[in-house]
Description:
Chain A is α/β, with parallel strands linked by helices. Chain A has helices spanning 55-62, 98-101, 119-129, 135-145, 161-173, 191-207, 247-256; strands at 16-26, 29-39, 44-48, 70-76, 83-87, 104-107, 179-183, 210-214, 227-232, 235-239. In chain A, the strands form 2 sheets. A 6-stranded mixed beta sheet of chain A has the order 6-7-8-3-9-10, with helices on both faces. In chain A, strands 2-1-4-5 form a 4-stranded antiparallel beta sheet, covered by helices on one side. Chains in contact: A-B, A-C, B-C.
Amino acid sequence: MASAAAPPHTGQQGLGIRFDRVERRFGPLVALRSVSLEIIPGEFVALLGHNGAGKTTLLRIAAQLMRPSRGSVIFVGPRPGAPVADLPGKPGDEIPAASVKALVGLVGHSLLLYDELSAAENLTLFAKLYALDSVSARVAAALESCGLATRATSQVRTFSRGMRQRLAIARALLHSPRLLLLDEPAAGLDTQGLAWFSATLERLRGDGCTVIMSTHARNESLDLATRAVVLAAGRVQDDSGPGADPRPLLESLRAEA
Amino acid sequence: MKALHATWTLFAKECRLEFRTRELLTATVVFSLIIIVFFSFAFDPTPAESRRYGPGLLWIAFFFAGSLMVNPSFAREQINDTLDALRMAPVPSFAVLSAKILANLLFLSIAEAILVPVFSVFYNVSLAGIVGRLILVLVLGTVGLVITGTVFSAISAHARMRELLLPVLLLPFLTPVLIAAVSTTISLFGDARELDRTWVTFLAGFDIVFLAASWILSDFLAEG
Amino acid sequence: MKARIPITLLVAGLVFFGGFAGLFIAPDEATMHQIQRIFYFHVPLWTAMTLALSISCFSCIAWLVSRRPTFDLLAVAGAEVGVLCCTGGLITGMLWGKPVWGIWWTWDARLTSTFVLWLLYISYLLLRELVEDPHLRATLSAVFGIFAYLDLPIVLLSTTLWRTQHPQPVLFGGPKSINHTMMMVFLLCMVAILGVMTLILIDRYRLERLRFEAEELRVEIESREMDAQQLPARLRVPGKELPAKGTA
């Protein structure tokens, strides 16, 4: 397993993302209060914090599922410093570049899968929506990889919790995203699934994919992290910083947990 | 074209989902049937009255059933938040919207195809010689209903009491379509059995205007 | 706004004088006699409604384009005032109809379309009521507001094609010419009612604006309180104070 102290990969292939004074309100509830964070291509960021700190909201904004109430989000291309697209906090001016959407994958709180479709049908649908080539081959490979090949034609509603989560992760990875957003991805995974997931994350990190993983449990995959960011009450409370060793911060959090 | 391909893929998905369970279709047909039958109990019309009031009844049945039928278009996507998955995908929001519009059009047309012959049998209204033109009117009216209904489904999916809100938003809005469709159908069923060009043009105009409006505003509907 | 009191008095004066003129100064109309006087109020109400709803639609578009809260506030203010004028138009229409046609209601073009418009904008207000998140509420009601406004001419056209029982419009394309005094009284009432509508619109907008600003202040205060509070102990390293890296 790659040591967490190793400097981040040169990041030739991942997307970077910059949050600039991002705020997000839901009526009277303020989820994010002025978050500024720059994530360099290729980083593996562990996003930590207690419930309600704003981790999910931050990830959803990164996934372009919602716009910031104030502030902006900018995606940076594989060559650090080269902007790919703008997503300012004043919506309506710019339209997010479709190419950025095609490069981002999200494993969220919800399944993001159709219960009444089979595993293969779900993956095929998204493969087509992301305009991938050799759809059936990719779908078969993805199902094989997450161990669901034998249940390819069963409807998702017949799956166990662990199987659903595996399929959700497979769906997020199908289009080879360059920025992977994970919101408590290990929740519900069985031991076999966890092993597969860890191996997959290692491979992605080796590829240089940028990963932002939110978790508040003692997660083994935290060993892969190259950076730790702690959110509290909608603000960045602690940040081990790009290039620095995140282990001291992670240790302190584990001790307190 | 990529957008068309995406629309087709999503349309196929909508159809696959619906035909697997057929819940929506069944409920729509049964509900419309009930309205049609109840009319007979409530009014006991003579054949002449059936020809005079039948079109109104038919369209009211389609409007009520239709406004209930379009509701799940977007409400269903809230299970497992699949709408988020669609929004993240690099497809235009209008592709998602038009796939649902086309699917609703298909389902409601199937229901109408079943119900119109049933109506003609129950009320002794002959459809001979007017079938083609009747289909034209049905299509134009249904398209108007389905376009606005699907858009309002996207709007009301975020609201409380959405099953009640959608008909409340939709039915007053569709008054012009109701007037036009019923007037045209009455003249079709009448003795002259002719098609009123003014109303047909009007319906086509309505459909075009609101299809264009939906296209322009589809990005805003996709926000969450 | 210091000018507010004189302006309100002026408008009130216009209303009073307009009402008086409409009822007593304007000459008797040949066919409908006293009942025709409602025309001095009914048509201006319709005009005021159209103006208010146009402002509302414009604001809906402006909101979608610029996302400035002002436009969302103006949209709801315009819609509410529009509904108010529409209700006035419905009532005056019915009051006109009863003596002239002998019935309180008839499905003629003008009354029917007024009623449908009324329903449309009531449902707009209902939609706003039922969506909780303010940002989403603004966006969704803006889309619906635009649709509703586009439907306005279509509703009018359809009901006109369908039916007509309303008296020939006197000013807008009607064959009869209008007496000079009647025209003066009409214009006076028009100005008066538009004045009232504008004042109510401004007030309604200001009310929404105050609510909005109060909410903003409340959130800001809460935010500062949260910053000032001690952060939960378990997020600090024991024996070592990690500086909070919150950004301003």
